Amino acid sequence: MQRQSATFLRRSYETVQVPEKKLAASVAAILVFSVGHDIDHLVRCDFRWQPSGETVPVFAAIFAKYAIFGFGLYFYLKIKVGPLFWAILAGIGMVLAALAHCTPFSYQTPRSIYRAYEMPAAGVLTVTVLALLMLALIATAAYAQYLWARGSK
């Protein structure tokens, strides 16, 4: 009877899923760079503070973004969502960031963001934060897809 108990404990221990710390860290990096990018939008007065029909959707989208990332990180650490969630979310974020800042139809290209600041160092900093955000989105999507394909939670 003792042997069966030990075997059962070992098997249940082996099946315990642990969240991938590198993936959680890369999601945290996305959040940090996203906050920096949103601060850039605030400094450049892209958002108006007075509630109107124009500002409510913008602030709702920002709130939804942080709510999705926050709840997603919580549920990921509780093993309720897996790497596929982050692969999809980071992929969508990358596409939206690319459409908003790197297409010929965008009015907020890296060049216009840089030129919005009087001090060149501030322009370089904001464009660097945007580039790091996009790189973090790409890296997170690729790594999360790798983990999902590998079959880990």
Please tell me about this protein's structure:
By secondary structure, the chain is mainly α. It has one domain. Helices cover 75% and strands 0% of the residues. It contains six helices and no strands. Helix 2 packs antiparallel against helix 3 (55-77). The model is unreliable at 5-16 (pLDDT under 50).
What attributes does this structure have?
153 residues; mainly alpha
Task: Please state the structural category.
Answer: mainly alpha
Order of helices and strands: HHHHHH
How many helices? The count is 6
Flag low-confidence runs.
5-16
Specify the biggest β-sheet. Answer: none
Number of domains: 1
C-alpha-based Rg, rounded = 20 Å
What proportion of the residues is helical, as a percent range? over 70%
Distance between the termini: 33 Å
Beta strand %: under 5%
Inertia-based shape: globular
Question: Short description, anyone?
Answer:
Helices cover 75% and strands 0% of the residues. By secondary structure, the protein is mainly alpha-helical.
